[in-house]
What we know:
This protein is mostly helical. 61% of the residues lie in helices and 4% in strands. The protein has seven helices and four strands. A two-stranded antiparallel sheet has the order 1-2. It starts with a strand and ends with a helix.
Amino acid sequence: MDHPCHKCAHSVEDGRAFCSLCGAPQIRVSIPEAPVELIATGGDAFPSLVQEPGPGIAVVQSSLLPGLWSHAMRPCALAAAVAVVLMFLGLNPFVAALGAGFLAAIFSQRRSPGTAIRPAVAAKLGAFGGLLLFCMSTVLEMLAVVVLHKGPELRTEVMDKLQQAAARYPGPQVEPFLEFVKSPEGFAFMMVASLVLGLMAFLILGGLGGAVSAAFAGKRDRH
Length: 223
């Protein structure tokens, strides 16, 4: 049997996750007498997407959750693109990661109007936005190093910062560490470690930004 799409009224076959005409997710609106929490039956990877249902709050079927995650790719990528532009204009990278997570949750919410995203899911969307931001910024920086031949300039800049840090925080282990970093193996090790720590920071800050966005949206809806 078919049913009309809630967005464009196009006929959609029952069981399909999205409308073939406009791409809107096919959701059910439920108005239960008591608050009910929807739990995904497909595993623990996708927790409940919506907050406690109430009048006008959409309830998403658990079987549609994987499709909704793929549907969130575009808003998360858009949030990361906005953040990477601001970062290259001078915004602090960690602030950019927080903003990417915040925007990822907001853009995902706007793609599914009437669906309240839970903070836990918004945090995952934000972390995904932070991951995309990290990938975009890393690729752009690598292209700048390769195309513009900024490898020696980057090494000099990193070593200058390390020298300044060593001058501010002197210690018996500082000189051996600097000598290790000056070697090709030590410099490569430091760069890999910096990438790993940067990735972790972007994921955490992106998730935090997504959770904060969902919390603000929840307060606004209650008012």
